[in-house]
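As the work plan foresaw, the team has encoded backbone shapes as discrete tokens. One protein thus recorded appears below exactly as we store it.

:::
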Amino acid sequence: MNLQYSQFITRTEFHKNRIQQMIHGNLDGLKEGEAVDNKTVIERFFGMAGAAGSSYCGDKDCFIGKYHGYGNPIGIINGKLDGSLNYNRNGCGALETEMILMPGESKSIAFILGMKKDAEAAGIINEYENPEKKCKEELNELIKFWHGKFNAFRVQTPSKEFNTMINTWNAYNCFMTFIWSRADDALWLFPTVYKYIAETGNMAFLDEVISYANKEEDTVYNHLKRAIDFSMNHLGVHGIPVGLHVIAGMKTGLSVALRKNDFQTAFPYRPDL
């Protein structure tokens, strides 16, 4: 991240129970639908639910203070945040609340981060009016979600470490890679299927029917064919496969746009053919 650049494109606002940060916030004078250099204002928020805010700060320099650091920010030492906000400087989000607890009493507060416009952010925070109840519900939903993903494929071997790697971390990594998908992800099917068949001799696996991400179904063999077809129909100006997204070069550090070439995509593409 170019810090100097980022300091000139953000601003923060305080709205009742949240700090709202606008990326490219200096474009706020544009009419709806207009853009400068293909940029639009992106909003994200840091909010608090379960207690009323007593002070806030949206400027990092003011929160930390001169000659201070993250271990002793002046906003904490003073006991009250100064209400500063950021415009084209170094933004942050800090919220403070005051409460009195009787002996043995406890209270729950939820701090919420998100990338939503202000009206949506307000609605999300309102859902956490009872933070303890809502957070338990969200945690149970999250556990159910991941168990549903992980239970689709399980292995059991004498090695607990191997089981954890395959059943949890490998599955998680594959899922997150899909979320932040690159165009070459499908091409890794080929060495994976090849290795599996080479080890097991199970040629019938090619005829098994499995789902695509969009819930359509097809044989493993046709999955492989469509992966090749996709790459052959998405070539750059020099005949090399391209990444699916503008950010597709994140693994290689290359800046790859749709019409440019992605050499990392080409590496698995050639042996797959």
